[in-house]
Specification:
Length: 611
């Protein structure tokens, strides 16, 4: 059994060797800046040693003192060709910079322990995603990394020996906390086991300058995106509240801020299903890059893919926002791109579709949209004797219903496609996707479409399941001819938003369409659907009930509950689910608005008020 000494147990995330406490870090990552600050405040060392070149001590210390304003250290690259330069961003979420700042707060001596005697050997910087530290802890993260150590080389041994020599020269009576890169930890520990000689030479860095990066450059040049760094800067004094600097919280804040700007600039709104897809798609992009959380590039790509370029622009702007940075400073201000700081940068091209004022010009002599002469004039003309639809809108929504029926049948056809290796017949054609996917087999795959029996009858489209009861207008109306469907829908109350005398504008939450017309009872009062838990489920039950064809298309952000598959089977029906995210947002926007007319007489004047 271990002997009880009465001393406090060492922190599991650090390594202790005599008066040295080692704190391994991943450079430039927020989680390790948090761990470094917490370790220094807990250990209260007399000396904090950071694995940084001694030749950069003066500018780095000055840059740390300028925070929260971010600085750039610039110098000529001795290993590169003539004119090559190195830019080093000094950012608040970097663990080395955080070590310098926190050491100053507790009055500890700071030692730059890289003697800079030779160019730093090239080391693989492939680390497990640092976000894992938030969930498994620093000790397990470091342990998992050290299972597969870096390959050793003579250059690496000399570099580690130089760091060890500097550490061995620190005050032997003081506790020393060493902040060292994780990929250098084991070589430094080994070098510390024996006395080291002073390196014979020191590199010189020409044209060493401290610069102020322009605020517009921060999104490209920082290791962590600026909004995340500003969040860390705001909460670094509250180290007990680690959740406040969690990456997921920061990403959600970026999406929310971008959404507000997007709505203000374009008048468009982000739907709840788009928010869900944004989270899922950005997560998948991160996983594809062997990371657990998305960076600024992945967030922007996801925004463009799920919404549009305008929203992607707002996401980039929100993620790049860092309020303390100024374009005018006591240092020279420079605008630089990511290519000048990093290698293998990724690019994304955004084409903002801004409103063209010339396209908004109205033809000379065109009548202006009519307005109320006195407030309440249009509301006074409501009689409530009956309602009807606006025929041009009926044609648009009927066309879209036919499109959904075709799409639903194609989805069902794809689900019943059989793919097999080519033997004697190419069946219905070569399946190029499966052939390429399994090209290593050196075989051609063909596909066969099985016949789909039955047609699509009813169509149910759910924009919002309305858990908050925002859509209070529940209506069932009948088609007026053989080409118009019976409809049941829930929407906002149309006559709260009048656009003409007796003409109200509403927004669908969801609707049901079924042919032939003039068969539907009031869906919202029908006792057969009382067990439905939501308006969307009531519409789906009615769609299964009134459809005279075998298949019913259900468009929504998520599929219906599994019990509806059983109900449909007992009724001899099948539900074809189409995720709403697969449909064009522009087309959905066109059909989501409905105008309700207070009587058939309003159809004659509706064209003067509806555009």
């Amino acid at each position: 059994m271990p002997e009880e000494t009465g001393l406090p147990l060492p922190d599991a995330g650090s390594l202790r060797r005599g008066n040295f406490v080692y704190c391994p870090v991943v450079p430039g990552r927020l989680e390790f800046a948090f761990e470094v600050r917490r370790s220094i405040l807990r250990e209260r060392p007399g000396v904090v040693a950071v694995e940084l070149p001694v030749t950069l001590e003066a500018p780095w210390t000055r840059a740390a003192a300028r925070l929260p304003e971010i600085s750039l250290i610039f110098y000529q690259d001795e290993q590169g060709g003539e004119g090559d330069a190195v830019y080093v961003p000094i950012e608040p979420a970097d663990p080395f910079t955080e070590a310098i700042r926190t050491a100053g707060e507790i009055g500890a001596q700071v030692v730059f322990c890289d003697p800079d005697a030779a160019p730093r050997p090239h080391l693989l910087d492939s680390y497990p995603d640092p976000y894992a530290v938030r969930h498994i802890g620093l000790a397990k993260y470091v342990e998992a990394y050290r299972v597969y150590p870096q390959e050793r080389s003579p250059e690496l041994a000399r570099h580690a020996a130089g760091i060890a020599w500097k550490l061995q020269g620190t005050d032997p009576l003081e506790k020393v906390l060493v902040v060292v890169s994780l990929n250098l930890l084991d070589p430094v520990l080994d070098a510390m086991e024996e006395p080291q000689e002073q390196p014979s030479s020191r590199l010189r860095k020409e044209s060493l300058e401290l610069l102020n990066p322009h605020p517009e450059s921060l999104g490209e040049i920082l290791a962590e995106y600026p909004a995340l760094q500003w969040r860390y800067e705001n909460f670094r004094g509250l180290m007990t509240d680690a959740d406040q600097v969690d990456r997921c919280h920061a990403q959600l804040a970026v999406f929310r801020e971008a959404e507000h700007e997007y709505e203000a600039n374009t008048g468009e709104r982000i739907a709840h299903w788009q928010r869900r897809l944004l989270a899922r798609y950005s997560r998948n992009l991160a996983l594809a890059a062997n990371e657990l959380s998305a960076g600024i590039y992945d967030l922007t790509v996801a925004a463009r893919a799920i919404v549009d370029d305008n929203y992607a622009w707002e996401v980039w702007e929100a993620a790049s926002r860092y309020p303390p940075q100024r374009s005018v400073s006591d240092l020279p201000t420079v605008k630089i791109s990511g290519d000048e700081v990093w290698i293998n940068t990724r690019r994304i091209r955004l084409r903002r579709r801004l409103a063209n004022p010339k396209q908004k010009l109205r033809p000379h002599g065109l009548k202006k949209r009519k307005k109320e002469s006195t407030p309440g004039e249009w509301a006074s003309q409501l009689n409530g004797e009956g309602i009807c639809s606006y025929p041009p809108e009926d044609m648009v929504i009927e066309d879209y219903g036919r499109f959904l029926k075709k799409k639903g049948k194609s989805v069902l056809s794809e689900e019943r496609t059989r793919v097999e290796p080519f033997t004697t017949s190419i069946l219905d054609g070569i399946d190029m996707r499966e052939t390429i996917r399994r090209w290593y087999e050196r075989r051609i795959y063909v596909r066969q479409f099985q016949k789909v029996h039955g047609e699509v009858g009813a169509v149910v489209v759910i924009f919002d399941e309305d858990r908050d009861n925002r859509y209070t207008y529940l209506t069932t109306w009948l088609g007026e001819n053989q080409n118009e469907s019976d409809m049941a829908f829930y929407s906002t109350f149309p006559f709260d938003h009048l656009v003409g005398p007796g003409i109200g504008r509403a927004e669908y939450g969801g609707f049901l369409m079924t042919l032939p017309p003039r068969r539907m009872y009031d869906v919202w009062q029908d006792p057969d659907y009382q067990f439905a838990e939501s308006k969307s489920e009531r519409l789906l039950l009615a769609g299964l009930d009134y459809s005279i064809e075998r298949h019913v298309v259900y468009v929504a952000a998520r599929p219906p509950r599994s019990i509806f598959k059983t109900i449909a089977g007992r009724m001899g029906r099948t539900i074809i689910y189409i995720p709403i995210g697969q449909l064009s947002p522009l087309s959905l926007k066109k059909i989501r608005v409905v105008h309700v007319l207070d009587g058939y007489d309003k159809r004659e004047i509706a064209k003067d008020y509806l555009w």
